[in-house]
Fold this protein.
Amino acid sequence: MGRFPAVLTIAAMLLLGGALLPVPAGRVLASEPEMPPYPERGLKGPVSADRLPVPENPVLLHGRDVWEGTCKVCHGPGIAGAPKITGTRFWAKRIEQDLPVLFDHAKNGFSGSSGTMPARGGNAELSDADIEAAVRFMVSNSGGQDIALDGLQ
Ligand code: HEC
C-alpha cells in the first residue's frame, strides 16, 4: 500500500494521544497566573480590584484588600497625577526603581513630576507590611509581575 496509510496511521495515533492527555483544568498554580495584556494606558474607566485577577499568593491577596480600601481612590481612576493601576506605560519607569524605592515612597510619601503621593496613601493606620503588600499588588497588575514577589520567603 505504499507510505500514505502509514502516515495516516501515525497522524491518527497522534490525534488519539492528544485527546487522551489529561487537561490540567483547575490545577493549583505554583506561581501567579499570567496577567492579561493590558492596554498601556490601563483598563478603560476606573479600575477596582474586582476587575483584576484574584491572586493566590497570600501577600498579594492581602495587598488587594489594602489597595481596594485606601489606594484605589487615586490609583484606580488614575487621578491627581497618580499612575493608574494596569497602566503599564505609567508604571514602567517607576517599576525600574525596584521595590525598596517604591516601598519607601509609598510609606513616607513622595512628590515627583506628576503630583504628590501622600505617606501611606493618607491612611496612618496601615502598617509597613500593609503598604508593602499593596505596592506588590499594584506592581503585579501594572507590568511588574516578575518582581512583585521579590524578597518574600
Ligand atoms: C490621594 C491620592 C493617592 C492615594 C490615596 C495613593 N496614592 Fe500613590 N501616588 C499618588 C500620586 C499623585 C503618585 C505620583 C507621584 C509622582 O510621581 O509625582 C503616586 C505614586 C505612587 C507610587 C509610585 C512611587 C514612585 O516612586 O514612582 C507608589 C508605589 C504608590 N503611589 C503607592 C500607593 C499605595 C500603596 C497607596 C495606598 C496605600 C497609594 N499609593 C495611595 C497618589 C495617591
Notes: Confidence is low (pLDDT under 50) at residues 10-30. Residues 70-71, 73-75, 80-83, 94, 97, 101-102, 105-106, 110-118, 120-122, 126, 131, 134-135 surround heme C (CB under 6 Å). The longest strand covers residues 110-111.
